[in-house]
């Protein structure tokens, strides 16, 4: 087996849109994309918690990513999808997105780290916590994609 230099590493990113903004998560964190949109509300939960959904007998907690990034809520429509994550991200956890995109193969060198902590901003501000959802940005042909770190979703629930 031939060793590949780290500079030639490629990542596959599952893309989706929120409003007209392009986002993505590493495909290795994604269990499945699902059309289910019948939610059971959770009373007294943070605003960004959309509710529970039953998929093949497993109950998943669904977060509304629009609210987590500071956008207004939007009614679920025929394009809405759930991105469900593998257990290493959070057991039975998913996010609601406006529409799903393609899987993009991206050279890691094209991903720029844009976390606020690297720019010397004051610690523990709400803006910094929002920024912590993203692990970087990547320029694609005609678009800028924000790559999210799904491991930070639950820790950022209080910002919505």
Describe this entry's structure for a reader.
The strands form two sheets. The chain has a six-stranded mixed beta sheet, with no helix packed on it. Strands 3-6-7-5-4 form a five-stranded mixed beta sheet. It is globular and about 45 Å long. The protein has about 160 residues and is mainly β. The chain has one domain: CheA-289, Domain 4 (OB fold (Dihydrolipoamide Acetyltransferase, E2P), Beta Barrel). The mean pLDDT is about 85. Helices cover about 5% and strands about 40% of the residues.
Reconstruct the topology from this structure.
Blueprint: E1 10-18, E2 21-26, E3 30-34, E4 49-55, E5 58-64, H1 65-68, E6 81-85, E7 93-97, E8 99-107, E9 111-112, H2 126-131, E10 134-140, E11 143-148
Parallel strand pairs: 2-11, 5-7
Antiparallel strand pairs: 1-2, 1-8, 3-6, 4-5, 6-7, 9-10, 10-11
Placed side by side, the strands forming the largest sheet appear as: 8-1-2-11-10-9
How would the global form be characterised? globular
H/E order of the elements?
A: EEEEEHEEEEHEE
End-to-end gap: 47 Å
CATH class: Mainly Beta
Low-pLDDT segments, ≥5 res: none
User: How many β-strand runs?
Assistant: 11
The main pleated sheet reads as: 6 strands, mixed
Proportion of residues in helical segments? under 10%
Looking at the structure, the CATH topology is OB fold (Dihydrolipoamide Acetyltransferase, E2P)
Number of domain units: 1
Which architecture would the CATH scheme give at its second level? Beta Barrel
Mean pLDDT: 84
Kindly provide the radius of gyration, computed on alpha-carbon positions and rounded to a whole number of angstroms: 16 Å
What's the multimeric state?
Answer: single chain
